[in-house]
Design goal:
The chain is built from four helices and two strands; from the N terminus they run H-H-E-H-E-H. It is mainly alpha-helical.
Length: about 90
C-alpha cells in the first residue's frame, strides 16, 4: 500500500489529534514561562506550525530562529508580520 493511501485509510487522524490535545493540556498545566520550543524560519511550514501552536492549541511557545544573514527582505517582513499577528494571542 502506498504511504499516502496508508495515511488516509489506516490512520484515525481525529483520534490522534485527541491524543495530542491531551498531551498539550498536561504541558499547559505546568504553568511554565513557555510550553514548547518552535523552530521558525519564516517559511510556510514553520509559519503554519507556529500559528497552530498558538492559535489552535493555545500554547505559549519560545520561538527560535537562526539568522544566517541570507534571509530575503520579504522573508524578514513575513516573519515580523507573523510575530505581530500572533503576539496579541499570547
Amino acid at each position: 500500500m502506498w504511504e499516502l493511501e496508508y495515511k488516509l485509510k489506516e490512520i484515525n487522524w481525529n483520534e490522534r489529534e485527541k491524543l495530542l490535545i491531551k498531551m498539550l493540556e498536561e504541558v499547559k498545566q505546568k504553568k511554565a514561562s513557555y510550553d514548547c520550543i518552535v523552530p521558525f524560519s519564516g517559511g510556510k511550514d514553520s509559519t503554519y506550525t507556529l500559528w497552530a501552536i498558538v492559535r489552535k492549541y493555545g500554547l505559549k511557545p519560545l520561538v527560535v530562529s537562526f539568522d544566517h544573514w541570507f534571509y530575503r527582505p520579504k522573508t524578514l517582513e513575513n516573519r515580523a508580520k507573523t510575530f505581530r499577528e500572533l503576539e496579541w494571542m499570547l
